[in-house]
Fold each of these.
Amino acid sequence: MARSTAALCAVGVLGLGAAACGSSTDTGETAATTTAAASDSGGAALPSDGGGGSVASDSGGGATGASSASSNPSSSPSATASSSSSGGSSDDEVATCDVGDLQAAATQGDSSAGHVHYDLTFTNTSDDPCRLSGFPGVSVVAGGDGKQVGAAAEHADDKGEPTVLIPHATAHATIEAVNIGDDGGPLGDSCKPVDADGWRIYPPDSTKALFIRAEGMKACSADADWLTVTGVHPAS
């Protein structure tokens, strides 16, 4: 079955606030590695498709700064994520991953029973270990101006596990989206599908977000519950 990759190069850093809502299609989409930023308050313009850097934006508007992000993380077998134990572990002393430390990507996987699954990955592109724990925020933006459309993803039962990422290591979560197609699919008129620009992703415990461009994506513009996301796990 068609596999769609929306690769996102840690791009947009957004301002405070909004959780997230995402969208999906059942058709294959070409992976896009982008640098992007969108503002929660709807003021920042979405970035262009080109480039590999990160664009930072305040909650009120346009881009204010940029930091580079690696577009070619190492595939070395030593680049693995470790699961941290609760309480007392040295992993607890590792700093939480910031948006400037991460590159994110969303890859469409299998479809089942009216749903589409996406593998959401976070890669540590910094030179130091960092820690992820809990649920990422997931939503969709549209209109070319960084505005969120529809409801943010609900949390799934799978809470994930605390994960320490050494440089170039990857952690992942799973986004499940109702397969809304062009007409709302099983949600019908309660969805009100619109063309979307891509995913807005908040790493766990972050108030700034990354943007993943996704060409041809549809999203529910109404407040229908059509997205869920799991907690973060270390890569297997």
Note: Residues 5-70+81-234 form one domain.
Amino acid sequence: MKPIVQRRRSTSAISKALSKTKSSREIIFPFSHPDNGLPVGAFGSPNSTFLLDERVHLTVGLQTQERHLFLFSDRLIVAKSKSSSSLKMKKQVRLSEVWVGSCLSEVSEKKISPENSFVLGWPTSNFIVTYSSPEVKERWLSTLQWHSNEMKQNECPKSLFMQILLMDGNNSSSNTTISISNTETADDIIKKTTQNLGLLGRPSDYHLWVIPGSGDPAYPLVGKD
């Protein structure tokens, strides 16, 4: 992936099947609440521990959808209710790839209170997740942060070299290579890049974009990506 910095212009059998399944595949499971016998092992891996589950609203842009989140010690599962008795898995993400933040205005044009909400993201996706109460939100936020950091600390490699291409409004460009760790955010990378290139202005004057691969469109990263 090649990141681009641009000046900001505006503001069990089932578990084995899951481990071999691409995250985009949809799988339907029988559903009941964990307290009443939900087979949480169907969502997790043999070495993971079930932590939390909650019905939430996920918002991106102007669209809001109801989803069910299952949090394990190593992954996050996003599911959709198919009926009162079944769920369809929409996404599973390793916690080492998950980030959280408070930049709600970067993700949606809707006015959403941060009291019950925060930004939840993983590569190529960012959502505002809204919980039923501030207490539930804080419990999820602290648990996600702790376990995500734990997974990142155990991840190898912990750092890599990234090539950055700077483009400005005059169609001129320059580039630099920086070393980043798996715990650094888009804001951290922008700050390093502007320092390396001796750029004027604040890091908030720039935006980081990523080109995933040949022929794929670039997408912007928000501060906590």
Note: Residues 14 and 20 are 10 Å apart (CA to CA).
